[in-house]
Amino acid sequence: MSSVPPSSRHIISILVEDRYGELARIVGLFSGRGYNIDSLAVNQSIEPGMSRVVLTTRGDAQVVEQILKQVNKLVRVHKVRHLVGEGHLERELCVATVRAGSARAREELERVIKLTGARVLAYSATSFTVEATGTSNDIEQFIELVRPLGVRDLVRSAPIALSRAGAEGEAQPEPASSSAAE
Amino acid sequence: MQSPRIAVAKSKDAPEPAARRAPSTPAGAPPGGQPGALGDGAGEAVPAPRLRGARIIVEALIKEGVNLIFGYPGGAILHVYDELYKVQDRLRHVLVRHEQGAVHAAEGYARATGKVGVAMVTSGPGATNVVTGLANALMDSTPIVVISGQVATTLIGNDAFQEADIVGITRPCTKYNYLVKRVEDLAPTIKEAFYLARSGRPGPVLIDIPKDVTAFEAPFIWPEKVELASYKPTVKGHPLQVKKAVDLMRQVDKAVLYIGGGVVNAGAQPEVRELAKRLNLPVTPTLMGLGSFPPDNPQSLGMLGMHGTYTANMAMAKADLIINIGARFDDRVTGRVDKFAVNAKKIHVDIDPSNVNKTVNVDVPIVGDAKHVLEQMLDMLPQSEPAPAREAWWAELREMQRRYPLRYKDRTDTIMPQRFFEELAALTKGKYICTTDVGQHQMWAAQYYPVADGRNWLTSGGLGTMGYGLPAAVGAALSGTNEPVLCVSGDGSFQMCIQELATCVQESLNVKILIMNNRFLGMVRQWQELLYDRRYSEVGLKYFPDFVKIAEAYGATGLRAEKPEELRAVLERGLNTPGTVLMDIIVHKESNVFPMIPGGAAHYEILLGPEDDEDAQPRELA
User: Fold this and answer.
1) Considering B10, B16, B64, B162, which one is annotated as catalytic?
2) What is the pTM of this model?
3) Contact B356 A73 (CB under 8 A)
4) Cα–Cα distance measured from residue B268 to residue B283, given in angstroms and rounded to the nearest whole number
5) Closest partner CB to B241 (pick from A66, A75, A180)
6) Is residue B218 within 8 Å of residue B50, measured between CB atoms?
7) Could you confirm whether B288 is annotated as catalytic?
8) Mean local confidence (pLDDT), B327-352
9) Which chain B residue is nearest to residue A31, measuring alpha carbons?
10) Residue A179: which pLDDT band, with cuts at 50, 70 and 90?
11) Res. A178: pLDDT tops 70
């Protein structure tokens, strides 16, 4: 394992039964096998009794194949999806309190808001709290834009993602016959 | 992700809170209906009997076909032990001397019978003591169910006496585990636990049961079957993949069949034999697959891997096709992965999809049960079709076997360990169940004991657990065999679960313990000799007990052999003495296990013993 090929970011979406300890099982699988979780979002899903976990991780193709198989092996996991390429939509939320003390800074903030589609959640005499949504890349850009204005506090959610309407073709692991058609 | 905690305060006299009660009569049940057999469904006209949790556990185990459990009582599991007392005629409990022993005994029983082994322990230390056994069973795919007591639901999280978060602790070393918080969930949970333990890739399941749950009452309803939408193991191989595999096996001359524990678990030994015959394939079993192909069959190359035969490992290195059935390309087999069988095409049959392409990329993956997939393969190979001759390939293999057989230099002044195994093999013909511990004796046993059947070979392969052997022999001796069970151990390993001698004697078990006593932690010493310039760091047991006296103190028979001329007589006497017998075999102190592939070396960089000519040391692949 001397030369590891450059690893890329992967979004994995998991539908798991909403039961005691199931999230710990997923998270423990990553830590136990030496995979990293870059971000993690969990909430109820539209299906009753099911939670949706969306996480991002890094790894080469072999690592991701192992992750998908290992997660799929968990007894209460119903579906595992690897969201890749253009087949999915991704959203992350960022809330930042920006000082924007000077008039110039406020003007600049207004420009940023227009540019990024962010909106003001609250303001005071000395600061503005704004929220922005977008892909993780969009959020990175947003942060770069507001940073010079003096960020007092900032919090990012984990990205959530889902496949585009009708896009059923993406990588659902079919381990029984992954290369049967070749 | 956590369901709300159910707070229950139950005093002895107060009626149960209404919320805890399941309806006592199923809707539509006629009044005064005759009670039927326990738990025979709520759908019938008979109301299910109301039982307390502890009784439900016991009845559920009996419904599941369990008639033997291994365990150790304690506070949190007391209610269940009270019920066990009442059903002794239907469910036998064997008291071990340490909870680790209970789990290994359950493993031994499972391995020997193919049924699910069961262990029962109390909370806290009782539960934490099962961790090693669970990890062992997970690595070796052994179906067991462990039931642990837990402090009452009202106390969980309070750092109560003998409280441990055993579900949290054992999550990574079980196939699945449960904390049962409602008495109504007991029966379905137990049903599901057994199903999970034995189906797919078998493994350990733990059920943690708080004490108050064993005290509450609920109707005992035994579910007919288990429905798990998210768990559907693939049993049959994909037909196109199977066809691709069969075509390759026909086309490629230099092929080798590499078989593992999956063959034993699937009961696929006859199919493996048939496939090897119809395709004239050389066969090499892993440590876990030993016995699943007859060792005396001329097509057997012997075990492969770190201490496998020269021919088996070189066959893998030189083959153009490797057919892996129920093995997992373990690092003890592959050596350096990037140098492993680089020229060979690889077929991999495994019930666990996550084993496929995990360490070695394969050309034809087939997810499925070994027996089913082999049957599918055999269907495509008519018996009338003549077996391929593979003449050049067999000639090459036979030449390697001739030049580099397993060998050692016998001595007259001391018992050579290999000599001991040859004598044991001659006396037993490999017919008896043999358990081992971990270390040099384990590898010599694997090399020299001719295991006649996969279920006769009980060893800790994946985890390498010293201390497994004796309790596993306890489980095997209670599996219904009429023959003695051999427990081959070392002077180091044996002391790790030595307390189970008491269990052996208590149950009058026909266990024959053979300690290869070299007064060293031999395998570690061997590595220190070969790789650390003989700096023997903490491997010489400076104090060792008199094992014969220990056996006698426990009420077993103790014998000792110190010289080669005593060996045969001691073995014969020991094997023919009824009950538990310990034979302390004083062997040559510094013998090494060869061949050996050092850790991190390629699988063809095989170290041979000093008996083999120096110039033959094969460092590079020809």
Assistant:
1) B162
2) 0.90
3) no
4) 14
5) A180
6) yes
7) no
8) 95
9) B172
10) very low
11) no
In degrees and rounded to multiples of 5, residue B494 shows phi and psi of -60, -30
DSSP-assigned letters across all residues of B129-148: TTHHHHHHHHHTT--EEEEE
**Do strands A119-123 and A128-134 pair parallel, antiparallel, or not at all (unpaired)?**
antiparallel
**Cβ atoms B347, B357 nearer than 8 A:** no
For the segment A145-170, the average pLDDT, to the nearest whole number, is: 84
Where does the pLDDT of residue A171 fall: very low under 50, low under 70, confident under 90, or very high at 90 and above? very low
The answer on pLDDT for B9 being more than 50 is: no
Interface touch B230/A76, C-beta < 8 Å: yes
Two tokens, residue A64: 């991701």
The reply to whether B227 belongs to the active site is no
Q: CA-CA distance, A25 to A32, in Å (whole number)?
A: 10
Candidate list B44, B161, B224, B409, residue with the active-site label: B161
The confidence score (pLDDT) of residue A166 equals 53
Alpha carbon distance, N-terminus to C-terminus of chain B: 58
Confidence class of residue A180 from pLDDT cuts 50, 70 and 90?
very low
Verify whether the Cβ–Cβ distance B352 to A65 is below 8 Å.
Answer: no
The token pair that represents B368 in the structure block: 């499925």
Instruction: Tell me the average pLDDT of chain A.
Output: 87
B523 a catalytic residue: yes
> What's the rounded Cα separation, in Å, for the pair B392 and A43?
62
- C-alpha closest to that of A75 among B610, B359, B205, B131: B205
**Would an 8 Å CB–CB cutoff place B553 in contact with chain A?**
no
Q: Which has more confidence, B128 or A4?
A: B128
Residue B38's pLDDT band, with cuts at 50, 70 and 90, is low
Is residue A177 less than 8 Å (CB to CB) from chain B?
yes
**Residues whose CB is less than 8 angstroms from the CB of residue A116 and which lie 6 or more positions away in sequence, other chains included:** A132, A134, A138, A141, A142, A145
> Is A181 in Cβ contact with B175 (below 8 Å)?
no
Query: What would the DSSP string read from start to end of B298-349?
Result: TTB----STTS-HHHHHHHHH-SEEEEES----HHHHBSGGGSSTT-EEEEE
Residue B457 three-state SS: strand
Distance separating alpha carbons of residues B27 and B15, to the nearest angstrom: 23
What percent of chain B has pLDDT above 90?
88
Comparing CA positions, the residue from B194, B189, B233 lying closest to residue B209 is B189
| Other Cβ atoms within 10 Å of B325 Cβ, number | 29
Residue B376 has pLDDT above 50, yes or no: yes
Give tens-digit pLDDT for B137-181: 999 999 999 999 999 999 999 999 999 999 999 999 999 999 999
- Domains of chain B by start residue, with CATH: 45-219 (3.40.50.970), 239-403 (3.40.50.1220), 417-586 (3.40.50.970)
pLDDT digits (tens, 9 = 90+) for B385-417: 999 999 999 999 999 999 999 999 999 999 999
* Cα→Cα distances B531→B310, B528, B596, Å: 20, 5, 12
* C-beta atoms of B172 and A42 within 8 A: no
Cα–Cα distance, A7 to B91 (Å, whole number): 55
Q: Which of A20, A78, A176 sits opposite B1 (nearest CB)?
A: A20
Active site residue B161: yes
> Is the Cβ–Cβ distance between B290 and B450 less than 8 Å?
no
* SS3 state at B592: coil
**CB-CB neighbors (< 8 A) of A70 in chain B:** 354
- Alpha-carbon distance of B395 to B347, in angstroms, equals 24
State phi, psi for B193 to the nearest 5 degrees.
-60, -45
pLDDT of residue B3: 42
Does residue B327 surpass a pLDDT of 50? yes
- Domains, chain A, with CATH or none: 8-83 (3.30.70.260), 89-161 (3.30.70.1150)
With a cut of 90, say whether residue B44 has pLDDT above it. Answer: no
Asked if pLDDT for residue B564 goes beyond 70, the answer is: yes
